[in-house]
Amino acid sequence: MLRQLHSLPGLLAALFVVLLAVTGAILSLNPALERLATVLPAAGQISVAELTGKLAKRYPETEQIVRTPSGTLIVYFTRDGQVGADRVNPQTGETIGPYEPSSFSRWVKNLHRSLLLDTPGRAIAGITALLLVTLTISGVFLLATRMGGWRQLLQPVRGTLSQRLHIEFGRVVIIGLLLSALTGVYLSAITFELISEGIEAEPELPQQVSSGIPAATNTLAALKAMDLTQLRELVYPYPNDPDGMYSLTTEQGAGYIDQVSGEWLSYQEHDATHVFYEFIYMLHTGEGLWWLGIILGLFALAIPVMAVTGPLIWWKRHSSKPKFAANSAANTADTVILVGSESNSTWGFAKTLHDNLVQAGYRVHSAPMNQLASNYRSAQRLFILSATYGDGDAPASAKQFFQRLEKIHQQPTFATAVLGFGDRQYPQFCGFAKKVEETLSAKGWPQLLPLDRINRQSPQEFARWGNAVGKALGSELTLVHIPTRPKTTTLTLAERVDYGVDVQAPTAVLRFIASENNTEINLISRLFKRSGLPPFDAGDLVGIIPPGSQVPRFYSLASASKDGILEICVRQHPNGLCSNFLCTLPIGGNIEAFIQLNPDFRPASGKAPIVLISAGTGIGPLMGFIRHNWAHHPMYLYWGGRSPQSDFLYEPELNTYLKDKRLTELNAVFSRTNDRAYVQDKISLDGEKLRKLIKSDAQILVCGGRDMANSIMTALNDILAPLDISVVTLKVQGRYREDVY
Ligand SMILES: Cc1cc2nc3c(=O)[nH]c(=O)nc-3n(C[C@H](O)[C@H](O)[C@H](O)COP(=O)(O)O)c2cc1C
Q1: What confidence tier does 1 reach under pLDDT thresholds 50, 70, 90?
Q2: How far is ligand 1, taken at its centre, from the CA of residue 390, in Å?
């Protein structure tokens, strides 16, 4: 609901919001430019009477003096029968130049207020401001949900580039945007007379004035007592009019002044509503508060960025999920399917289940696990299909599942069946689905079927589970789902460096380029003089589909696409279909690959040190981070191999990076030398140094096998104990990240 509330007005209003933001940003410059071109007298420095005295010589026939909220002083006068208007120096009364309001500025103001369309335009501008209020408020709530609570609102952001840009910009400008949008809605409501702007003081027109010769303006008592900084407008009487009087408007009120006695004839204060209106007007336009105008104008410039990244995020989410036909509403469905997925393959399986059940006559509601409802009124069964990521962690569409589940206290009327999707190569095979099933049974939720697990998206295992579901429902259910092969790019092996054969750990650093055969990519890349590789960064993953299999194997990337190569580091496993294929691939050989973004695994920006820890091929992405460390961020590498002679991966490059300061310190240890040391041993030995680094906000990035990662965690917990923190604390702070396989 919150997401719809955010994305719908966003998409609708994107164009208008951008228009209002850009024009608003341009207009926000006006008060500051005016302020720059104006000499502002301090309060108490000069009275209105003194000013009129200074103006008298140059402008004997002054008609009116106007002082704008930004302090510009304009004199309207008659000279030789011609009317004119000049900007004057408020301290000296000297002419600065003719007053010629910029026609560009007036045009931009009209565009901002009414899109040059008069009343319908004003209405659109008002509605756009209202949509912007909805966007800012729903955006803050959405961010709090995404970050896991209000206290986490300022924590580092993870996600794709679009998501990070959208959130980072949003967090900085949100208060300013809300202020501009709310004040805009208020001004628009005033335009359409939905609320009152109050009454600008209209003093009584005096019936009687003193008779006699008018005194010189600079001698009038009321004007002598009036400070120039209070002035808004002074209208002179017609020359030689015995009934004439001065009309004076100030920030607080307005009145008439006798031209003979110089005393007030009448005076009326503005009412409170009008003072409030003027205050809001000042907040919206920055007129009279130029620095606020500039800040709000700068904030408004974030809107075009957000208007591009917002729809991009929306499009990505919508285009990558399969569309469900006949998706019943949550409270009318008899069968609910909740899906936990990161790269969407589980949605394909869910759709097959959904379609088959709909065909069998069930009313089915399918949704992400993050949308678990507190009540499914008509449901008789709930299926949960979920993948697992990291160390038994939730995939993206299930991150808020437990938070929501915690809030449900009543026993459901339906029975549940959990189906995990995972990969047996991971130590926590279907770890997240297992956690879900354990939690549901601890809560006493009835079970339709025990937990089942699907390895590597196996269609056979899924069909077998379908049979079990059919039996439980009392009808036959044939679930045939062949996972769609991800769209791949053909890459050609351009270079390889082999290591580790002597120590029974054959490992290769492989560098690929876009294949010559890929005509579509070649055309585009030739046009833009690019490598033809899909976009990726070091730390992302490449999925490679080995011949004879439909299921991709993932490898961490040691390069970024801007390097012009795709580099991975692969260890050959005796029975590994993909690793054998890759490690025996000749130069010129092709692979089919696609990119899976892994934006969580990146060095943090800023000056804090980065500690990189890995063993064996885990060095791959860390090499990428070091290679791109042109800002000379302090980087400390801990790495474990077998023998310095045989499998010291990347040794020459690492030495170069030490010399040019992209790498601060290299700690390589080997298990098949006299030292017999593993990387966790070196970590324990360096406890004091690491404590110091962590105290100075260091971030730790670990890449490698789960066993190594567990040993590192134990060693670091011992090191952190005296600081009264643990690895879990660092994880919560986003300062400990793992890429573990
Ligand atoms: C980076 C990464 C980490 C993974 N971690 C695990 C894991 O810890 N346990 C597991 O069983 N499967 C793990 N998998 C395998 C996925 O859960 C499995 O491929 C799943 O079918 C993907 O579903 P999805 O495409 O819907 O996200 C991991 C896959 C990747 C790419």
Answers
A1: low
A2: 8
- Tell me, what DSSP letter sits at residue 98? E
> Do 185 and 129 contact (CB within 8 A), yes or no?
yes
- Residue 340 in contact with ligand 1 by CB distance below 6 A: no
Q: Is 395 in the pocket of ligand 1 (CB under 6 A)?
A: yes
Pick the CATH number of 489-596 from 2.60.120.10, 2.40.30.10, 3.20.20.80, 1.20.1250.20: 2.40.30.10
Q: Is the CB–ligand 1 distance for residue 508 below 6 Å?
A: no
The pLDDT of 189-215, averaged and rounded, is 85
Mean pLDDT value across residues 95-116:
89
Q: Count Cβ neighbours within 10 Å for each residue of 481-495 and write b for 16 or more, e otherwise.
A: bebeebebbebbbbe
Residue whose token pair is 């690959």: 593
pLDDT at 163: 85
First CA to last CA across the chain, in angstroms? 36
Whose C-alpha lies nearest to ligand 1, atom 3?
A: 389
Q: What DSSP string runs through 675-703?
A: T---HHHHHHHTHHHHHHHHHTT-EEEEE
For residue 284, the CA-to-ligand 1 centroid distance in Å is 50
Q: Where do the structural domains in the chain lie, given as residue ranges? A: 2-31+105-197+287-314, 322-473, 489-596, 610-740
> Taking 70 as the threshold, does the pLDDT of residue 228 lie above it?
yes
Report DSSP letters for 13-24, one per residue.
Answer: HHHHHHHHHHHH
SS (H, E, C) 239-252: CCCCCCEEEEEECC
Exposure class string for 294-321: b at 16+ Cβ within 10 A, else e:
bbbbebbebbbbbbebbebbbeeeeeeb
- Supply the pLDDT for residue 77: 94
CATH code for the part of the protein at 610-740: 3.40.50.80
Q: Do domains 322-473 and 610-740 have the same CATH topology?
A: yes
Q: Where are the beta strands (DSSP E) in 472-609?
A: 489-499, 507-514, 541-544, 553-556, 566-571, 590-596
Q: How would residue 369 be classed by pLDDT, with cut points 50, 70 and 90?
A: very high
The structure's pTM equals 0.58
432 CA distance to ligand 1 middle (Å): 10
Query: Range with the lowest mean pLDDT among 319-333, 362-376, 424-438, 674-688?
Result: 319-333
What pLDDT sits at residue 669?
Answer: 95
Ligand 1 center to residue 392 CA distance, Å? 9
Of residues 553, 552, 558, the one with CA closest to residue 540: 558
Segment 658-707, tens digit of pLDDT: 999 999 999 999 999 888 999 999 999 999 999 999 999 999 999 998 88
Confidence at residue 530, expressed as pLDDT on a 0 to 100 scale: 62
Closest alpha carbon to 655 in 615, 620, 623, 700: 623
Tell me the CATH class for 322-473.
alpha beta
Mean pLDDT, the chain, integer:
89
Ranges 206-215, 233-242, 332-341, most confident: 332-341
Distance CA 180, CA 280 (A): 10
Amino acid identity of residue 524, one-letter, is: I
Q: Which residue has the higher pLDDT, 102 or 284?
A: 284
pLDDT of residue 35: 79
Q: Is the CB of 342 under 6 A from ligand 1?
A: yes
All residues at 6 or more sequence positions from 725 whose CB lies less than 8 Å from its CB, including other chains:
694
